[in-house]
User: Fold this.
Amino acid sequence: MWPFCWPVRQSSGLSNAVADPQTYQVDAVSAERAPTPDGERIFPSFGSFFYTLMALAAAIWVVLVGSAIPAVGDTKLGIIGFACGTVIGTALVVCSVALPAFRYGIDSIDISKASLGIRGSGIALVGLIVMGIGWAGVALALVARGSATLLANMGGDHGDVDERLVVAIALLLIPLFYLLVRHGLDTIRRVNQLAGPALLILACVSLALLWRRYGSDNLMQQNVPADQALTKDRLKAFAYAMEFGVTMALSWWPYMGGLYRFLRYRRHAVGPAILGGSLIGTTLSASVAALATVHLGSPDPVVWLVALTGPAIGPVLVGIVLLLSIPAICLLLYFVASAAQQLRSLARTPWNARVVVALAPLALVGFNTSWTLAHVVTVATFGSLVFISICGIVLADFWVLRRGRLDLPHIFVDGVEGHYWYKGGVNWAAMLTIAAGCAAYLYLYDPISLSARTAFRYAGAALPVMTGSALLHLLLMKLAPKARDVERRGQASPERAIVRVGL
Amino acid sequence: MTKVAQCLPRSSDPSDQELAARLNAWSEDTSGDFQKSLAPALIELGCWVCVAILLAGATVVWLV
Assistant:
């Protein structure tokens, strides 16, 4: 099947499961962006994919989102709305980017090149890097501060956390991230086979303890005081909860392609994402955090887990939660280091060097964890706004305009001979749609202050903006024949039977 | 699938050569599960979305 042996190197971001040093014939940087063949797809079972998606979803950041659910004013309504939102959002992300990535074995950024343009996909790349490093930084800050607080409490000190200890823990974690990420996705997958079930057990135990303490009648009935609720309008409260769920799911868009390109069987394309990523990883974990926050009065898991399980077991469980966030942080760093190959200056650098580049901002985070928690969430939130429109654009472009098919080699052609080459390498129709989508979203809803217009109560903001972006993209592509002409010219020319590809 | 018969590396760089070789091999590989139709996955996704929309709709009806 293979004309010659592939230089799959153990140090590359690709699977090392099939690596064999004896097969190295080309001493080159492994073409990690190249389509993943069947033999290198490292998720051959439902469980392996399910636990990886669950570990990514149920990491420490889900506590941040979950603790915000009671703020809608009605906790039970909030959990139902959040569950609906995550399922719908996950389904859209799977349809938009994950299924194409599974089919063609390439990541989200390469998938987006057909619709955004070979160079226009840079906007998705920037979003991926900002979100990936941003959320990895936030998670590192949470883990470092949580661990320092835990250690201080165990030592009997309940005052302010020692900042030197926070810095020391953060700087100790960074080499650990390097060791995990440098071996590529397969090592992280193996760790997630332990982290996934552990997070599931932890969520179930926490829920059972909450159930036992507050009873089935009272557990779901507790709400925040009315003056602290975002709204008194129950329909708007439901829209808020759905918005939290949909945007949480949409934040997966840049990463889903990077995971699905390693999925082996079609029958595992939906179940693990909806059950593991959406319902258990996100909704169950966020619901436990929401119920604990509203009953125990603190969004901090260090506080509510100790209050729930007692001073003996609580700190151990908090330590496990913090420890289990490490594989998820490593997954984000893997995606950033892998996507960095899209940058021309880093395209041919060794995998280990790109891992170091991805880790460098985290060293700064280690010295500024409080600043990171205060500011980086905002930056990462705004960085993720582009993906609402991009999800709609890529979905409409792939399934409607291209009938579910891509000319794979042309994804790697950087020039006018490529099918996906628009003027200047950028599909300006898509850029206009993204700009309009971001403006419309911010008009409807401010994701930082959570203030929303009246129209928000009917369907939130993300779903209407995504639908509008998809329709506007289709309309502009119909009205922009020049852009399409450039694309069609390549398809019609017989001399294009041979293309020149490159990283 | 593309009618491209062959992918050539854009430069003499080994990584471009490897990419071209992989793309050529990929287009010849018809045995992988990923080459099958995506329709069953789309139907399964549609079912999940319907369940979520029905739950959301029922909740809204209950609220209104």
Notes: Chain B has a mean pLDDT of 84. The two ends of chain B are 50 Å apart (CA to CA). Residues 34-64 of chain B form one domain.
